[in-house]
From TrEMBL:
Keyword rRNA-binding tagged: no
Protein's name in the database: RCG40811, isoform CRA_a
Record carries keyword Magnesium: yes
Record Pfam families: Ras
Domain of life: Eukaryota
InterPro entries membership: P-loop_NTPase, Rab, Small_GTPase
Requisite cofactors: Mg(2+)
Source organism of the structure: Rattus norvegicus (Rat)
Length: 89
């Protein structure tokens, strides 16, 4: 899944067609989203969960000892959102 973020900005680094083309080339689902306006955010999470549920290999016993590591949240200074990142182990 490829999520194009910050779609609320006027000057975008990557336009929609370029994102779609890249996603199709790599057989990926493409969703555009904006954390600021919440457009597409719920859709992105719902699609991700749906794909996880539809992928039996993720539920096999050899994968149960793996996990996700979350970094600590950063302090926010001023306006805007802050957050960490996650890595699949």
């Amino acid at each position: 899944m490829l999520v194009g973020n910050k779609i609320d900005k006027e000057n975008r680094e990557v336009d929609r067609n370029e994102g779609l083309k890249f996603a199709r080339k790599h057989s990926m689902l493409f969703i555009e989203a904006s954390a600021k306006t919440c457009d597409g955010v719920q859709c992105a999470f719902e699609e991700l969960v749906e794909k996880i549920i539809q992928t039996p290999g993720l539920w096999e016993s050899e994968n149960q000892n793996k996990g996700v590591k979350l970094s600590p949240r950063e302090e926010c200074h001023g306006g805007g959102a802050c957050g960490g990142y996650c890595s699949v182990l």
